[in-house]
Amino acid sequence: MSRFVIFPIITGIIGAIVADRKGRNWAIWGILCALFPLLLIVVFALPPVLKRGVTKNCPYCGQIIRHGDSKCRHCRRELPIEMVLCPNCKKFVPDKDYCIECHRSLKI
Ligand SMILES: [Zn+2]
Ligand SMILES: [Zn+2]
User: Which of 19, 45, 47, 102 could bond 29 through an S-S bridge, CB–CB 3.0 to 4.6 Å?
Assistant: First the structure.
């Protein structure tokens, strides 16, 4: 493969990974970065977005981390398990994708 083919694939993958870590649409940013490699600079400069149910702030270092992570990837500290009220069975259960009591999705 010529490097003219490999280069956009690499910039696309990097753009997708960086966008995904910032809680943004990785598919769109991956394609954009493959087409316009200069957009990588934009992706790196973009502030992370807080998405409800997708990302949250680390209680120790304040950095944005993924919802459901057991460890912060910034400060490497073990995160406390958050308890939420299940909308289906009305029990307090660990904040996961599904309820450990009734096994239904906790995401609305
Ligand atoms: Zn942290
Ligand atoms: Zn439940």
Answer: 19
How many other β-carbons are positioned within 10 Å of the β-carbon of residue 56?
A: 19
Cα(53)–Cα(79) distance, rounded to whole angstroms? 16
pTM exceeding the 0.90 threshold for the entire prediction: no
Ligand 1 center to 69 CA (angstroms): 11
CA of 86 relative to ligand 2 center, distance in Å: 5
Q: What is the pLDDT of residues 58-108, one digit of tens each?
A: 889 999 888 778 889 999 999 887 788 899 999 988 887 889 999 998 876
3-state percent helix, strand, coil for the chain, nearest multiple of 5: 35, 15, 50
Mind listing the pLDDT tens digit for each residue in 31-60? Answer: 999 999 999 999 888 887 777 667 888 889
Token pair for 45: 């400069």
Counting ligands in written order, which one lies closest to the CA of residue 58? Answer: 1
